[in-house]
Amino acid sequence: MPVAIPKQPIPLTRVLQRLEREGLLQTVVGSATARKLTHLTDNSQEVQPRGLFVAVRGERVDGHRFIEQAIERGAVAVVGEFVPEAFAERFPKASFVQVSNSRRALGILATIFHMNPARRLRLIGITGTNGKTTTAFLVYHMLNAIGQETGLIGTVCYRFGRHELPASNTTPGPIELNHLLRRMTGVPCKNCVMEVSSHALEQERVAGLSFSIAVFTNLTRDHLDYHGSFEAYLKAKKKLFDGLTFRATALYNIDDPSGPAMVADTQACCISYGQREDAQIRMRIVGHSLEGLTLNIDGRFQRFPLVGCFNAYNLLAAYGVGRAMGLDPDLLLEALGRVPQIPGRFERFTFEDGTTAIVDYAHTPDALENVLRTIREVMPEGARLWCVFGCGGERDRGKRPMMGAVAERLADCVIVTSDNPRSEDPLQIFEDIRQGMRHPEAALWEVDRARAIEQAAKLCRPGDVVLVAGKGHEAYQIIGTEKIPLDDRQLVQEYFEHYHTPARPPSIRFL
Ligand SMILES: CC(=O)N[C@H]1[C@@H](OP(=O)(O)OP(=O)(O)OC[C@H]2O[C@@H](n3ccc(=O)[nH]c3=O)[C@H](O)[C@@H]2O)O[C@H](CO)[C@@H](O)[C@@H]1O[C@H](C)C(=O)N[C@@H](C)C(=O)N[C@H](CCC(=O)O)C(=O)O
Ligand SMILES: Nc1ncnc2c1ncn2[C@@H]1O[C@H](COP(=O)(O)OP(=O)(O)OP(=O)(O)O)[C@@H](O)[C@H]1O
Ligand SMILES: N[C@H](CCC[C@H](N)C(=O)O)C(=O)O
Ligand SMILES: [Mg+2]
């Protein structure tokens, strides 16, 4: 985890004033209040002399356990929620700043230590269960194509200028996030479009950031292991909109049942998008095939290379962002019409004998259903639809039987396999998936994902369509705590090329 280093040391008094203004400050213990702080971190192992350590009650461990270690390594001040016993006596040279919410304090302090880079950027935040990465990529390409230098933060990677960094989280922790924003201002970027996950909102990773535009895509089942209930999940997403000022714009999908609730308490100017008559930004699907979509958006016809009705919403949301920025509709649509392939999102591979394989990141029941339906609607008659999928370990168990049911209902042939089992037993995950299926015996069950893809390649007939779902751009399989290289796109190319390139007749040699 990175450390925030300011241009010049920051007086602790400034930190206290800001925390007080935010209503977070409770008490201050200790004598070091006149000190200047050289860096900020929430990881005790990264503390150096004259640092500020924020103790966070984490998902795995409680950062308060490492206060002593942080002070031994040179922290002169500690921010936390509970004052350790006899702090002043045990650590006479340090100060303890008690706050009501350490995660929130960390977010706000990260903006100070990185000199508030977000103030020099137009921040565009995208939230929702599905479509965040796609919509963020669309906005990124659209704005850069029309000459507005824009950075990107999301699941696949972080991009700005000529830099592309691997993503740690969809929405990184506040120190890394503000560091990225600071680097973007150096490009210089005008805008930053970022995915804002529900985990990030719950954990205050975006605290202290002011979004100019926030987009809601949709809300269906995911992450209930973490949030506990659908209501709590909705509430976490809603925080993005509740935090907007009256100067911001909230774009919401009016066709999604949770759309209106999402913006119910926002101060921002709300703009709805969707197919409904009363949508302020409206589209109609004019045509869709395996080659792409034709939409009528606000009365203008445009073709796009993205497949699937769900992508019509992502395109509309991206267009809405451009409209909220006051940009020319024709320019926006023309730019969106030329978007490149988004890594691992409905990525299509066609083979000589007419077989098609599609690698897609669908890892929720709703996404899997949408993708399978889409393929069904546009695939050639007489062809069979295959679905190779699995469910992540240490993630929402409830979605497993639902995904089993969806795959069985919509595909002709199902191969269940592993998708990042993490510390769980893949066979137990299979058992959970099996619970949702009526005829589990009709499916193939293959723990080894590479072998499952090979089976699909071997068993499908020329002209069939094979969906390999769940991992999209991911180039690894997480087994235990190890990340083993594995790339669906590479495997698909390798195995399908092997089984679906018709053998050429041997060339005749004339002697
Ligand atoms: C479960 C979870 O969300 N964990 C996230 C969380 O970690 P945490 O702060 O709770 O970490 P922890 O390990 O319990 O440690 C608590 C504190 O003790 C500190 N510590 C720990 C050890 C030590 O020796 N000294 C020390 O000071 C740690 O630095 C930390 O401050 O905060 C970290 C920084 O913000 C995240 O990187 C981390 O994401 C983990 C890696 C993760 O897998 N998260 C997933 C579930 C996630 O967030 N996913 C969403 C996307 C979901 C979607 O796409 O729909 C995302 O935004 O990526
Ligand atoms: N608007 C949408 N509605 C429903 N399903 C969608 C939508 N957009 C994409 N999908 C499906 O969901 C999958 C994930 O899409 P995407 O990566 O854009 O979403 P995400 O919200 O970023 O997901 P994650 O939270 O895992 O990062 C896609 O591969 C596709 O199958
Ligand atoms: N952002 C999602 C991605 C899931 C992708 C899937 N491949 C899995 O590992 O379950 C998560 O962390 O739950
Ligand atoms: Mg994403």
UniProtKB/TrEMBL annotation:
General function of this protein: Catalyzes the addition of meso-diaminopimelic acid to the nucleotide precursor UDP-N-acetylmuramoyl-L-alanyl-D-glutamate (UMAG) in the biosynthesis of bacterial cell-wall peptidoglycan.
Posttranslational modification: Carboxylation is probably crucial for Mg(2+) binding and, consequently, for the gamma-phosphate positioning of ATP.
Organism, scientific name: Rhodothermus marinus (strain ATCC 43812 / DSM 4252 / R-10)
GO CC, alphabetical: cytoplasm
Residue(s) carrying N6-carboxylysine: 237
InterPro entries linked: Folylpolyglutamate_synth_CS, Mur-like_cat_sf, Mur_ligase_C, Mur_ligase_C_dom_sf, Mur_ligase_cen, Mur_ligase_N, MurE/MurF_N, UDP-N-AcMur-Glu-dNH2Pim_ligase
Lineage top rank: taxon: Bacteria
Residues holding meso-2,6-diaminopimelate: 395, 419-422, 470, 474
Name of the protein in question: UDP-N-acetylmuramoyl-L-alanyl-D-glutamate--2,6-diaminopimelate ligase
Mur ligase N-terminal catalytic domain: residues covered: 39-110
An annotated Gene Ontology molecular function: ATP binding
